[in-house]
Amino acid sequence: MERAAATAREMLGMDMSYIADTRAGLQDYICVTGDAASFSAAVGEAVPLEGTYCELLLGGRLDNLVRDSSREPLVADLPITVDGGIGAYIGVPIVLSGGETYGTFCCLNHEPLPELRARDVRFLRVLAQLVADQLDEEHRLREVRRLEVAAGSVGALLAALAARDGYTEEHSTAVVELALVVGRHLGLDSAALADLEYAALLHDIGKLGVPDAVLRKRGPLTAEEWTEMRRHPEIGERIIASMPALSHLAPVIRAEHERWDGGGYPDGLAGEQIPLASRIVLACDAYHAMTSDRPYRAALSPGEAAAEIERNVGTQFCPLAASAVLCVVASPLPETT
User: Fold this and answer.
1) Domain assignment of residue 337, yes or no
2) From the CB of residue 309, how many other CB atoms can be counted at a distance below 10 Å?
3) Which three-class secondary structure string do you get for 210-273?
4) Cα distances (angstroms) measured from residue 28 to each of 35, 46, 126, 134, 263
5) Residues 104 and 229 grouped into a single domain
6) Under a CB-based contact definition with an 8 Å cutoff, are residues 268 and 248 in contact?
7) How many other CB atoms are there within 10 angstroms of residue 136's CB atom?
């Protein structure tokens, strides 16, 4: 990135070049080369985007090329022009592969530069694309590392859960299989599907904090025991929130037992206040639980479980998530690899 900025400044014969991140409404200098001090710019500094050349450029109001700032009405009287002594400017946006505008790649000069041409803008655009490619690659590598850490964390948590309750581990795996098919049916993108997979795997992780006498009881729970069991979403939230690679899923884990009509727990959320992943996992969780044998009751048939979900659409279950589950379970689940 520094090499691209230095190349731009040297090839265009300008006093300073910089790359700025403007996504937060600031002109945040992440790379600066040349006589930056004379323009009062430094790496790590950020100034409000409002009233800058970059704001005008990104808003489509300023040309990429300003040969003489004193003759450009939009910028001639700006404090940044007068105080910084800007005589000439050339800048282009930095656009990432997903279409997001990251910021700007710009060069400044104290004196006007009437010799600057459109070819110089094209040259700067080529360098800006190289910078965008580098930023995309850095993001990809960070995401790979995050997923590696997350996968390791999930594995450790599931191993601990399996040691406490083998059924819960098997149940979570089955819920994942169904949830992913439902997520694809709903058109979720790859990132949302990855989060849904982890949420389904970990939706019962809070049971690590439930006493064995309650968790392993062979028979219906008492009112007091249900109160203890219903603490597991909050316990799960705290566990997941403590793990940086997974912490963004903490609200999903906490909300997995919230009902569409607001009658769930622990917070009484309703409707779209509940994260979509939580709504999907709740419906998949209920379907698998109903179709599984438990010590205190026999499994329902798939048809009986589907009918039960249908009866509770709009009350317990989100209509969107429930209809997707009902559609998916009407056909055999595809084999996973």
Assistant:
1) no
2) 21
3) CCHHHHCCCCCCCHHHHHHHCCHHHHHHHHHHCCCCCHHHHHHHHCCCCCCCCCCCCCCCCHHH
4) 17, 4, 22, 18, 46
5) no
6) no
7) 14
Q: Are residues 127 and 235 in the same domain?
A: no
Q: Is the confidence at residue 210, as pLDDT, over 90?
A: no
State how many domains the chain has: 2
Q: Are residues 174 and 131 in the same domain?
A: no
Q: Which domain holds residue 97?
A: 2-139
Token pair 């429930």: residue: 322
For residue 148, is it within any domain?
A: no
Output 212 or 244, whichever has higher pLDDT.
Answer: 244
Q: How far apart are the C-alpha atoms of 211 and 227, rounded to whole Å?
A: 12
Closest listed residue to residue 22, CA positions, set 61, 49, 59: 49
Q: Is the pLDDT of residue 294 over 70?
A: no
Q: Could you tell me which residues are beta bridge partners of residue 20? A: 29, 104
Does residue 107 share a domain with residue 15?
yes
Selection from 323, 280, 264 nearest residue 192 by Cα = 280
pTM value?
0.58
| CATH number, residue 53 | 3.30.450.40
Kindly report the backbone phi and psi dihedral angles of residue 293, in degrees, each rounded to the nearest multiple of 5, phi listed first: -70, 135
